C-alpha cells in the first residue's frame, strides 16, 4: 500500500499543482526577502555615507575652530559652550526624553517570527538549486536569530527591535553627534559673508606691506636727534637756546648721513641733493611711521573740530586783535589799522579789526585833548575818517570792540575778560595778535589756537628793555622773559618780530611787516619834485619827535648832548612830544643847559615838519621806530644808533648809523653838511604798506593757507605721531588758564584789578551779557 507521502510528485496532478503553488509562494517570499535585504544594505550604506559626511564636516569645522582660536574668539565662546553642554547632557533631560519616547519606541517593534518559520521550512525542500539558496537563507536566518536572541531574550521582548545592527550603528552615530552638537551649531557660519569679512579683517591687521620691509627702524642717532627736537621747549626753559639745539640735531644727522639712510630711491636722491638735515630727519621719521601704518589724530589738548571751520562764505576770514585804538597815537593803534585796511584791499579775505573799548573815565586818561566817545559807533566813525584821509581809499573791513581797562602804573590797556569770545565762531579762521605777550599775560579764556585755524603774533614792543629801567628791573625782566615765552608758545602758531631788538620768542622769525602811511610817501615825492626844479626843499636843520617818556630815547638824547656839548658847538635840536615825563625831561635839559628846544607834540605829517632836513633818533628801546621810517619816506636824512631795531633802515643811503658817542657827533655833522638822495621806486615800495603786507603774508604762512587748494580746513589733519611740542603747548595753556583764574595770583603778578571779567559799565556800553551769565570755559 502506497501512502500519499510515498507517492512521487509527478505521479498525481493535484500533488503537482500543490507543489508548484508552494514553490511559487516560497520563491515570492525569497525574492521579497532578498529585496528587503538589499534595501537594508543600501540604507546602511547611505547611513554610513552620511555619518562619514558628518564626521568630515566636524573635522573641517574643528580646523576652522582652531584657526579662530588663534584670533582669541573661541576663548570667549568656550565658557558658554561648556555651560551649554553641561545643561544639555544633564541626567534629568535624558530621563525625560526616554519617558516621552519610550512607549512609542515599543510600538515600533516588528514580529518577524512567522516570516522566519516560513523561510526555514521552505529552505528544507525544493530542488538542489533551491537547496543552496536555502542554505544561504538559513545562515542569514541563523545569524539574525542570534542577533534577535541576544537583544530580545524571552517573552514579550521577542518582537522589539533590540540591538539590530543598523539601529545600533544609528544610535552610536547619534551619540557621537550629540557629543559634537554644540560645535555643529556654528557650522552654518562657515561659509557666511560675516565670517569671511571677519577673517579678512584679522589678516589685514597682521599684513605687512613691501614698503614696511624696505624701511629700517630708527637707530640711536636718529632717536636722539628726534628727542632733542621734541625737547626744545623744556631745554629753552633751562637756558639751552634753540640754535644750540639745532646744532646738536645737525651733528647727529651728519653722523647718521655717513651711513646713508636706506629709504626709497626717490627719497634717497633727495637726501643726497639736499643738505637740510632737519627736513631729512622729518622725512626719515615720516617714512618709518608710514611703514608701520600708525596714525594719530589731533593733539592731547586739541579740539578736533573747530567751531569756526564751517561757513557758507567762500572767502577766508582774518581777525586782527590789538591793544590800543585811535585817537591814542601809538604804534599798536596805528599799525594794526593800516594792516587791516591793506589786507581788506586785496579782497581775498574778509577782515575784522578788534580794538579795546574804554569806559569814559579811562578815555579821559588815555586819549589826547580830552577827546571822549559816548558809544562804540562814534569811535568807529572817528577811526574810519582818520584812516580814509591817509590811505586815500575806503577800506572795507569790520571794526569790533572788546572791553579794556587802562593801567596807570603800566601805562597800557589790558583786556577785561575773554577777548577771543568777541570773534564769532563762524569767523574764527585766522587770528593776528598784535603784541601777543601783552594780550595774553592775564588772558583767562579759550585758547586762541583751539578756536582759530592759524594764529600769528606780531611783537611790537621790547618790554624787557622798559622793565630793566624800573626799580628791581633785572629781577622783573627775568620773570617777564619766561612769561613771554610761556604765553606766546601756548597761544601762537607763528610769531613775527619786527626786529632783532625784541626778545627771542618761540616759533618766531624776524621780519619788518610794517609800512608807512601813504601820506609820507606823497610828501617825499613832492619834496623830490621841488628839488628837481632847483627849489630849496629843506630850510630847517634837525629835529626829534616822540612820546616824551624817558624810555623813548630821551635818556640817550640828553646823555649824548651833554657829553658832546662842546663838540657839537652851536648845533640846535628841536624836540616835539608830549608825555608823562615831559616836565622831568625839560628840567634835566635846562639844568645841563643843552641846546634843545621843546615844542608841543605834532603829527609827523604836519607841514611844520616838512622843511626839516635831518631826523635824529638815539633811542635803543624801540623795536622798529615808525618815526624813522616816516622820515626816510619824506626824503630826509636820519641819524640813528647802530642797533638791531634799525637794521631794516641800514639799506637806505639816507640812513646814517653810529656805534659810539664820538661817532654820533661825526654822523650829525655829516648829515648837516650834505643833502639827502632822492628815493628810488624800489626803496619807496619797500617802505610802503603794500610791501609790508606782502612780507607779512609770506613770513606768517598766511599766504600758504589762503592759497591752499583744498579750501577751508574742516578738521585737524591726521598725523603719524602725537607732537611732543603740541602736548607741551597745551599743558602750558591749561596751566596758564588755571593760574589766571585765581584773583589773588592775578593781583600779585601785577594785573589790573577786576580784569578777569568785564564790568557792568562795559555791559552797558557794548550791550553785553552779564559776566555772571557768560563765563568763559577752557577748551569750549
TrEMBL record:
The reaction(s) this protein catalyses: a 1,2-diacyl-3-O-(beta-D-galactosyl)-sn-glycerol + UDP-alpha-D-galactose = a 1,2-diacyl-3-O-[alpha-D-galactosyl-(1->6)-beta-D-galactosyl]-sn-glycerol + UDP + H(+)
GO function terms (MF aspect): digalactosyldiacylglycerol synthase activity
One GO cellular component, as annotated: chloroplast outer membrane
Keywords from the UniProt entry: Chloroplast, Glycosyltransferase, Membrane, Plastid, Plastid outer membrane, Transferase, Transit peptide
EC code(s) of this entry: 2.4.1.241
Pfam families for this protein: Glycos_transf_1 (PF00534)
Main localization, broad class: plastid
Cellular localisation: Plastid, Chloroplast outer membrane
CDD domains: Glycosyltransferase_GTB-type
Domain Glycosyl transferase family: 542-677
PANTHER family: DIGALACTOSYLDIACYLGLYCEROL SYNTHASE 1, CHLOROPLASTIC, DIGALACTOSYLDIACYLGLYCEROL SYNTHASE 2, CHLOROPLASTIC
Membership in a protein family: Belongs to the glycosyltransferase group 1 family. Glycosyltransferase 4 subfamily.
Protein known as: Digalactosyldiacylglycerol synthase 1, chloroplastic
Amino acid at each position: 500500500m502506497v501512502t500519499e507521502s510515498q507517492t512521487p510528485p509527478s505521479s498525481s496532478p493535484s500533488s503537482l499543482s500543490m507543489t508548484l503553488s508552494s514553490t511559487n509562494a516560497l520563491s515570492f517570499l525569497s525574492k521579497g526577502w532578498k529585496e528587503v535585504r538589499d534595501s537594508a544594505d543600501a540604507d546602511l550604506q547611505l547611513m554610513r555615507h552620511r555619518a562619514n559626511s558628518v564626521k568630515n564636516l566636524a573635522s573641517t569645522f574643528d580646523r576652522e575652530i582652531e584657526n579662530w582660536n588663534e584670533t582669541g574668539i573661541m576663548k570667549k565662546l568656550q565658557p558658554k559652550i561648556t555651560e551649554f553642554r553641561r545643561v544639555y547632557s544633564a541626567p534629568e533631560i535624558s530621563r525625560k526624553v526616554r519617558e516621552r519616547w519610550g512607549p512609542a519606541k515599543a510600538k515600533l517593534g516588528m514580529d518577524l517570527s512567522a516570516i522566519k518559520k516560513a523561510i526555514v521550512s521552505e529552505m528544507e525542500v525544493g530542488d538542489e538549486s533551491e537547496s543552496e539558496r536555502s542554505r544561504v537563507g538559513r545562515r542569514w536566518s541563523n545569524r539574525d536569530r542570534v542577533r534577535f536572541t541576544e537583544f530580545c531574550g524571552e517573552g514579550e521582548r521577542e518582537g522589539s527591535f533590540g540591538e539590530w545592527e543598523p539601529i545600533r550603528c544609528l544610535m552610536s552615530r547619534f551619540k557621537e553627534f550629540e557629543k559634537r552638537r554644540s560645535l555643529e551649531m556654528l557650522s552654518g557660519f562657515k561659509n557666511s559673508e560675516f565670517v569671511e569679512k571677519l577673517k579678512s579683517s584679522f589678516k589685514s591687521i597682521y599684513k605687512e606691506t613691501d614698503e614696511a620691509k624696505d624701511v629700517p627702524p630708527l637707530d640711536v642717532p636718529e632717536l636722539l636727534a628726534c628727542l632733542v627736537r621734541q625737547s626744545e621747549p623744556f631745554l629753552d626753559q633751562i637756558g639751552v637756546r634753540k640754535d644750540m639745539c639745532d646744532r646738536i640735531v645737525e651733528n647727529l644727522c651728519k653722523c647718521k648721513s655717513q651711513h646713508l639712510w636706506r629709504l626709497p630711491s626717490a627719497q634717497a636722491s633727495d637726501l643726497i641733493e639736499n643738505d637740510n638735515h632737519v627736513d631729512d630727519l622729518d622725512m626719515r621719521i615720516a617714512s618709518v611711521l608710514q611703514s608701520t601704518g600708525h596714525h594719530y589724530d589731533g593733539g592731547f589738548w586739541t579740539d578736533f573740530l573747530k567751531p569756526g571751520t564751517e561757513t557758507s562764505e567762500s572767502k577766508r576770514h582774518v581777525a586782527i586783535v590789538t591793544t590800543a585804538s585811535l585817537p591814542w597815537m601809538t604804534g599798536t593803534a596805528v599799525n594794526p589799522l593800516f594792516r587791516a585796511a591793506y589786507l581788506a584791499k586785496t579782497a581775498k579775505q574778509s577782515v575784522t579789526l578788534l580794538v579795546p573799548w574804554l569806559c569814559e573815565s579811562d578815555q579821559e586818561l588815555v586819549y589826547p585833548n580830552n577827546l571822549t566817545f559816548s558809544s562804540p559807533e562814534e569811535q568807529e566813525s572817528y577811526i574810519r575818517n582818520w584812516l580814509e584821509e591817509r590811505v586815500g581809499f575806503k577800506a572795507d573791513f569790520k571794526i569790533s570792540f572788546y572791553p579794556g581797562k587802562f593801567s596807570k602804573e603800566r601805562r597800557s590797556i589790558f583786556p577785561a575778560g575773554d577777548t577771543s569770545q568777541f570773534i564769532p565762531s563762524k569767523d574764527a579762521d585766522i587770528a593776528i595778535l598784535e603784541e601777543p605777550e601783552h594780550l595774553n599775560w592775564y588772558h583767562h579764556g579759550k585758547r586762541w589756537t583751539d578756536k582759530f585755524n592759524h594764529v600769528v603774533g606780531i611783537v611790537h614792543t621790547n618790554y624787557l628793555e622798559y622793565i630793566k629801567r624800573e626799580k628791581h628791573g633785572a629781577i622783573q625782566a627775568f620773570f617777564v622773559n619766561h612769561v613771554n615765552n610761556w604765553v606766546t608758545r601756548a597761544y601762537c602758531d607763528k610769531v613775527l618780530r619786527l626786529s632783532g631788538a625784541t626778545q627771542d620768542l618761540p616759533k618766531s622769525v624776524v621780519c619788518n611787516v610794517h609800512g608807512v602811511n601813504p601820506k609820507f610817501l606823497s610828501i617825499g615825492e613832492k619834496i623830490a619834485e621841488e628839488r628837481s626844479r632847483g627849489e630849496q626843499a629843506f630850510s630847517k636843520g634837525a629835529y626829534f619827535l616822540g612820546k616824551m617818556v624817558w624810555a623813548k630815547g630821551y635818556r640817550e638824547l640828553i646823555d649824548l648832548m651833554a657829553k658832546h656839548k662842546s663838540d657839537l658847538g652851536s648845533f640846535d635840536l628841536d624836540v616835539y612830544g608830549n608825555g608823562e615825563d615831559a616836565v622831568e625831561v625839560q628840567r634835566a635839559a635846562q639844568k645841563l643847559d643843552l641846546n634843545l628846544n621843546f615844542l608841543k607834540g605834532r603829527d609827523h605829517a604836519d607841514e611844520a615838519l616838512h622843511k626839516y632836513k635831518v631826523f635824529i633818533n638815539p633811542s635803543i628801546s624801540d623795536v622798529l621806530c615808525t618815526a624813522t621810517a616816516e622820515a626816510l619816506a619824506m626824503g630826509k636824512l636820519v641819524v640813528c644808533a647802530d642797533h638791531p631795531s634799525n637794521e631794516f633802515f641800514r639799506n637806505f643811503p639816507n640812513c646814517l648809523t653810529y656805534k659810539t658817542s664820538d661817532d654820533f657827533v661825526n654822523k650829525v655833522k655829516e648829515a648837516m653838511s650834505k643833502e639827502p638822495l632822492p628815493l628810488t621806486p624800489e626803496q619807496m615800495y619797500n617802505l610802503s604798506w603794500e610791501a609790508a603786507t606782502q612780507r607779512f603774508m609770506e613770513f606768517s604762512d598766511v599766504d600758504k593757507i589762503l592759497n591752499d587748494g583744498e579750501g577751508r580746513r574742516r578738521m585737524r589733519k591726521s598725523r603719524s605721531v602725537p607732537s611732543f611740542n603740541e602736548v607741551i603747548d597745551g599743558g602750558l595753556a591749561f596751566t596758564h588758564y588755571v593760574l589766571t583764574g585765581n584773583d589773588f595770583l592775578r593781583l600779585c603778578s601785577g594785573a589790573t584789578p577786576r580784569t578777569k571779567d568785564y564790568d557792568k559799565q562795559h555791559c552797558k556800553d557794548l550791550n553785553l551779557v552779564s559776566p555772571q551769565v557768560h563765563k568763559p570755559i577752557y577748551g569750549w
